[in-house]
Design goal:
By secondary structure, this protein is mainly alpha-helical. It has one domain (26-122, 138-177). Helix content is 71%, strand content 6%. The chain has five helices and three strands; from the N terminus they run αβααββαα.
């Protein structure tokens, strides 16, 4: 196996597993797991900040990321409006996300990463083994950062909104129990 293909052989199964888990979580009733949502909010925000710091050397990359975050936040608000909230018979609060938004975002991410991979991979195969050049990067495109920013903005907004709804729902339930 070529040394340039070793990272690809590792990344493809890991990305496949991550995409499978992501698709699975877009369908059906999902329980509200506050701690896990907070961790996701922090992780997505951290990824967004790190991508923004990486994009400081190229304003076009930063513009793509910023546009994606703003558009993702708008789609996150739309996703919250289309999400159904319910209480199960066992008393746990849950939500049913809109599968179309999740499927669209997943398809967009997979398509963009596949396209970038197809563009970058031939360039990496022709690099000299110890050449002075810097290998091309998957995230070195404003459109790729727009898609990644779209996910960051969507999930930070969506999970924050779910937590706000959960808090309101608990208050209304507590108020309904008082005489």
């Amino acid at each position: 196996m070529s040394p340039n293909l070793a990272p690809v052989a590792i990344m493809v199964p890991v990305l496949g597993f991550a995409i499978w888990r992501r698709v699975r979580s877009q369908f059906g009733r999902q329980p509200i797991r506050r701690r896990r949502m907070w961790v996701r909010i922090v992780m997505f925000a951290l990824v967004g900040v790190l991508m923004a710091l990486g994009g400081l050397y190229n304003p076009r990359l930063l513009e793509g990321l910023t546009g994606g975050v703003v558009l993702g936040a708008v789609i996150g608000v739309l996703g919250l409006r289309l999400t159904r909230f319910e209480r199960s018979p066992d008393g746990s609060d849950g939500y049913i996300p809109n599968p179309w938004i999740g499927a669209l975002l997943t398809a967009l991410l997979v398509a963009r990463l596949a396209w970038r991979f197809l563009v970058v991979m031939p360039q990496m195969q022709h690099l000299p083994a110890a050449g002075p050049g810097v290998p091309p990067a998957i995230g070195n495109s404003p459109l790729t950062l727009l898609v990644l920013g779209l996910l960051v903005g969507y999930y930070v907004t969506y999970f924050s909104g779910l937590l706000v709804h959960h808090r309101r729902f608990e208050r209304t339930q507590a108020g309904a129990r008082l005489p």
